[in-house]
């Protein structure tokens, strides 16, 4: 039987804040196999959660800020290939990314950041564009560009069937903050 190909589903947040008239965006610096890289607060979907919940969770885990997605910027697909260290093999991953913008919430003092995350950092558009060699993915700029031109889609574009919220062995719903616990209707989750 042939193995079915599956893309890796990820989420990302584009978060803007005004600093004395200068628009800045929240990114993370993270240690990777390829050295220190910049990325949006981003990560993988976990069992038992929808994309908005994953984005809120990943933003908190990587930046110590609460985040409420309010719109979809876009859905992006990209392929990443690189040599696997110590092996004569190529790592070949296709990512399907859901990018959101929304409301930045409270900072959680003392919140431990995910493993590999060095720090959260606010950068201007010019600083982001000047640091492309440090970007973990070309999607960082693509999502930023789409955000800056005002591309937005309603959260109702995504529908999550109740079956997703069925108990999974690795489900994380018991550790989510009350505002992030799965609801029956996707549009009322956040």
UniProtKB/TrEMBL annotation:
A Pfam family the protein falls into: NUDIX
Keyword Transferase: no
Enzyme class name: hydrolase
PROSITE patterns documented for this protein: NUDIX
Domain of life: Bacteria
Keywords on record: Hydrolase, Magnesium
InterPro entries: NUDIX_hydrolase-like_dom_sf, NUDIX_hydrolase_dom, NudJ
Domain Nudix hydrolase: 4-145
EC number from the UniProt entry: 3.6.1.-
Cofactor: Mg(2+)
A GO term for molecular function: nucleoside diphosphate phosphatase activity
Subunit structure: Monomer.
Family the UniProt entry places it in: Belongs to the Nudix hydrolase family. NudJ subfamily.
Protein name (Swiss-Prot/TrEMBL): Phosphatase NudJ
Organism encoding this protein: Polaromonas vacuolata
